[in-house]
Design goal:
Layout (H helix, E strand, L loop, with lengths): L1 H42 L1 H12 E6 L6 E2 L5 E13 L1 H5 L5 H8 L3 H9 L7 E7 L1 H9 L5 E10 L7 H4 L11 H5 L1 H4 L4 E7 L5 E9 L7 E2 L4 H18 L3 E8 L5 E7 L12 H4 L2 H4 L9 H11 L7 E3 L4 E4 L2 E4 L6 E3 H6 L3 H10 L2 H10 L26 H7 L9 H12 L3 E2 L14 E2 L3 H15 L16 E11 L2 E15 L6 E8 L5 H4 L4 H20 L12 H9 L2
Parallel strand pairs: 2-8
Antiparallel strand pairs: 1-6, 2-3, 3-4, 3-5, 6-7, 9-10, 9-19, 11-14, 12-13, 15-16, 17-18, 18-19
Helix pairs in contact: 10-21, 13-16, 13-19, 15-17
Length: 582
Amino acid sequence: MKMRSGETARQDKTYRWRSVVVFGLVVLGAIGLAARAVELQLVDHGFLAKQGDQRSMRVVKIAAHRGAITDRNGEPLAVSTPVDSIWVNPQELNDNIDQLPKLSRELKEDPQTLARRITSNLDREFLYLVRHMPPEQAAHIKALGIPGVYLLREYRRYYPAGEVSGHMVGFTTVDDRGQEGLELGFDQLLNGQEGAKRVIQDSLGRYVENVESIRAPRPGHDLVTSIDLRIQYLAYRELKAAMQEYRARAGSVIVIDVDTGEVLAMVNQPSYNPNDREQLKAGLYRNRAATDIFEPGSSIKPFIMAAALASGQYRPDSVVDTSPGFFKVGNKVEEDEQNLGVIDLATILAKSSNVGTAKIALSLQPEQIWRTLTGLGLGQVTGGNYPGESAGMLSHYSHWRPVGIATLSHGYGLSVTPLQLAHAYATIGAFGVKRPISFERVTGPVAGERVMDPKVARDLIQLMEHVVEKGGTATRASLIGYQVSGKTGTAFKSIAGGYSTDRIMAVFAGVVPASHPKLATVVVIDEPSRDVHEMGTLAQGGTVAAPVFSSVMAGTLRLMDIPPDDLQNVPPAALVRANENP
């Protein structure tokens, strides 16, 4: 009994000792937890809060809307539509690598290829997977709820007119920055400034709360261009038809408002659709009308006549003896297709006499010709600030020699762009006032620089009317009810060692209505190949380019409500039809 009592006492003592130890450990643990809590709450609070924010708080971009581009009447040429880009945090997504097959199925991408993209970029926190996905498709990706996969709202450029205005308007990069055409030329105006905000997001990347706005987005400004989409489409249609009919290599049409210098239409062939990024190749998207230079051929002869009239040595009724149909300058022979004999200036232009023009040019001071050409803008950019515009080539008169002057008189030995040539004819149409080219819509009168005596310009316009009349080289440029003033051009293209005998540039340039010009238009057809030999070299500008001019101008004059100036020569049957179909 005594032994049992001692054993019980020992057990009680052991129990009490263990209880004290356990209680002490609990107390120490509680003290430790309290100390740690104090440390976390007071000492390490800033660090932990920062770490928490880094895991749940993000600074996200707010995309800025790029300004729209419209034609002069408000028709859209370029607009920005909302899209979503899919991006990932490779480090975060790698921790959920088992989700990749589900993501790859939705993206229609090979799982192994996707895995390689993720694992090879683990040192990054941002990686685009897909740019510019339609919002409804991106919503399916978001619904997967895969950690590390996020959506970014952006804007994609869309061009409603497609290839009709592609060369003129240009296009943007995938980051919505201007790369060609007006998109590039007016990029600072169109491009907005993206904003930023701080948000809290959950583990699935969903925004829980907008914390603060860091910077509000600034949308870009809209650009109202000088283009009239109706005329643009008309020029596009007629040029494309001519290209197909004559199996030409390329072509351009430019229409300019004489009173303001506004470009109402500028089209090229072959064209491209800026909505299809696979078509964005330099050979297609280059705006030939502003960048490509060519020797203008006989379309420059009116400029030589302008220099002759300005010199005082010639009057509109002056005559030149072109007999016997050719003459030699140095080691070069200038010749016409036939002996035209003694002819006046109007006939020289109407028959496009190389001999007559060369004789006039050689009788003038070289400086007089050079001043006329530079005054009309040759050898200079047009002032429209179009990206990539070429200034052409015109050497200083001090380098000219007689043979060079003779060849220059009918369009060789200098180079122009179609835009430059149209600008020069617009200056003549403005009776000698050169206005800068504008790709923006202009309101109100536009001041210009007088570069030609108005009487000289008026006389020249009257002389060029004979080119379109019966017996001239451009009868197919005529218009019912309107007087047309213009000039054909047919230039053989330069090749290694000289000039080709079958590759030509067919040109027609003119102004209408001739009595008081409102429009200046240039048509250039590069290397028409159908029936070249049958049509004859001098007929090319009048046969290939002149009909395009006539068709484009007929529609444009009607669209712009420009009244006729030649009703006395309209056939009665045409007037009856017009009254029946107002």
